[in-house]
């Protein structure tokens, strides 16, 4: 099986450009199913999840074709409401957006229960409650969710948690519901705003995206259009942290610095020099970094998708650091692997106490999900000797050209074939 070999202790320095946002792309692509004409979506990251979604769209009858490596043309005119329970749909969690988009457009939809990264229970009850509030009947049977409505009607929906997926899915259905839908306690993440901007661009009437309350006046006639996806804040944060763990000087380009505020603030608190300009951030690590307490929160708080990478960094920083994970359950699955590299971490429920200053050493490790894999790569960059990361397919779901980008910054990373390990399941 393919793995990534990282020879650690190389200082990262130089310039790197981030791609379009994975979690925006995985919502804007299905949002094109709502469109009344051809959409051209630009700045897509060419990652495995996006490739799977292109397959999902084609199987639904949309003509989705890549014009170049980052530009997708979608002609949704011939889409039919078939059940999306094929392999490509099962692989990606975000295939649940097919439900909202198709329910709105056809009054019915069916999709396999979502797959995706495997950390903790990730139910979709808020999505279902939202569809029901809009007047749909929802049935879950044999691993497939069926949604159907004679007529979707706007509704007032309060989310118990500011769920990214539920907010977007309800928006997708509500643009085709009759009348006003109000989502209270809506997610405010930049990718939620990106989907709203795309839908507005093709004719929808959505106000308030980026705040707690989103108002959607449904029933507008949607057309096609061209749209450019926002930059990936998680990829950007990953390179900022990777620079810091190697004592480096990394300049991250093609980003929206405002999206990075929680990450920049935390790195500054730890003694990094973080300079921003219009669309880039430069992170220079001091010789001695300070420990930090990190609490993941919904946007604009510190993102859960950077928690594992930040944990890797904190294991190397002298002193005690604490991470509190408040967004997802059980997102500490990578910690056992970090401990095998020499990290000292005590996990108690949703809290990890890190006894920092560990000298990490490379070994064979395995990714249990996308960001877990990225945490281990981050640790490997600072470790003594060689780290070999198996289950690389998780990382390929979310990072385009990761190894090339790391190499361009001076890292010593290489993709190789089967890993020789006495842990059989890695092979
Ligand atoms: N939740 C529920 N019920 C629901 C929906 C969510 O209990 O109906 C819970 C989840 O189980 C989780 C929390 O609420 O504990 C947050 O879930 P949310 O719906 O906000 O997350 P998501 O839409 O499933 C997206 C990203 C994740 C990212 C989270 C949080 C996509 C495709 N995925 O997931 O990205 O961690 O928001 O920001 O947009 C990643 O990129 O590595 C990744 C996992």
Characterise the protein shown here.
- Helix 6 (164-174) links the parallel strand 9 and strand 10.
- 31% of the residues lie in helices and 25% in strands.
- The chain has helices spanning 22-31, 48-59, 87-91, 97-106, 125-133, 164-174, 190-201, 233-245, 261-269, 307-315, 335-340, 370-382, 392-396, 402-408, and strands at residues 3-7, 13-17, 39-42, 63-68, 71-75, 108-112, 137-141, 144-148, 156-158, 179-184, 205-207, 214-218, 225-228, 249-253, 273-277, 280-284, 293-295, 320-324, 345-348, 351-355, 364-366, 386-390, 412-416.
- The termini are close together.
- Helix 5 packs parallel to helix 6 (164-174), helix 6 packs parallel to helix 7 (190-201) and helix 8 (233-245) runs parallel beside helix 10.
- The chain has 14 helices and 23 strands.
- The chain is of the alpha+beta class.
- The strands form six sheets. A four-stranded mixed β-sheet has the order 21-22-1-23. A four-stranded mixed β-sheet has the order 2-14-16-15. It has a four-stranded mixed β-sheet with strand order 4-5-3-13, with helices on one face.
- The longest helix is centred in the middle third of the chain and has 13 residues, at 233-245.
- Mean pLDDT is 94; it is low at 419-427.
- Bound molecules: uridine-diphosphate-2(N-acetylglucosaminyl) butyric acid (EPU).
